[in-house]
Inverse folding.
């Protein structure tokens, strides 16, 4: 069974940093591109970042470029999102999502349960 | 960036109704479109990919159609479990973008 479990969310002050993790199981992690998608309270879905299976290709939304860094460790079946210079508008539930096999970008066939990041003083 | 616009934003319907949600892209995305269902407090769930392909395990009352810039998600006969928010997503190019969502509520 495919499982994605996010962790690392919490309350952080504006300008602060946080590192999210997503632990994957139930599939060959090293074969799949992985993504982070966020959802602000009461709002819609916003794609944040994507990393290819071998980390060769990385993409970011303009709203986070230069502040967030996506990475992965295929030996640990994990993907990460390092978030720096956090702003109030980064407050959201952050989902880890698996991109199905295909020529990227592609759709997301499995999602984690999400982790809440709150940026507030 | 490709903008995705869904209509309506809210839809009131009854069990047994046939409903259609529309998603328009600001430029052609061929058939690179997915639909997701999201229930309150839960992660999105994939329903449809490549505009009209039904994800495994998804009931056949869900169907998708369209290509280019105009797409539709149809639920042929609403069930109580279908009241949720629906999102379209284009994956033609980066940045990946979602529609703003359509909330399907009980009339």
């Amino acid at each position: 069974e495919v499982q994605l479990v996010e962790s690392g969310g919490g309350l952080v002050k504006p300008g602060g940093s946080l590192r999210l993790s997503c632990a994957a199981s139930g599939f060959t992690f090293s074969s799949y591109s992985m993504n982070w998608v966020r959802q602000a309270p009461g709002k819609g879905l916003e794609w944040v970042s994507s990393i290819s299976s071998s980390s060769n290709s990385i993409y970011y939304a303009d709203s986070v470029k230069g502040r967030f860094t996506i990475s992965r460790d295929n030996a640990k079946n994990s993907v990460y999102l390092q978030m720096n210079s956090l702003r109030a508008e980064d407050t959201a539930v952050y989902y880890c999502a698996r991109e199905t096999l295909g020529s990227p970008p592609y759709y997301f066939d499995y999602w984690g349960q999400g982790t809440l990041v709150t940026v507030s003083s | 960036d490709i903008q995705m616009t869904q209509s309506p934003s809210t839809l009131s319907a009854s069990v047994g109704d046939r409903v259609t949600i529309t998603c328009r892209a600001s430029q052609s995305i061929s058939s690179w479109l997915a639909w997701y269902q999201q229930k309150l407090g839960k992660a999105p769930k994939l329903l449809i990919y490549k505009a009209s392909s039904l994800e495994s395990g998804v009931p056949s009352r869900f169907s998708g159609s369209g290509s280019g810039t105009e797409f539709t998600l149809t639920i042929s006969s609403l069930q109580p479990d279908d009241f949720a928010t629906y999102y379209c997503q284009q994956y033609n190019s980066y940045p990946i973008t979602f529609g703003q969502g359509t909330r399907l509520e009980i009339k």
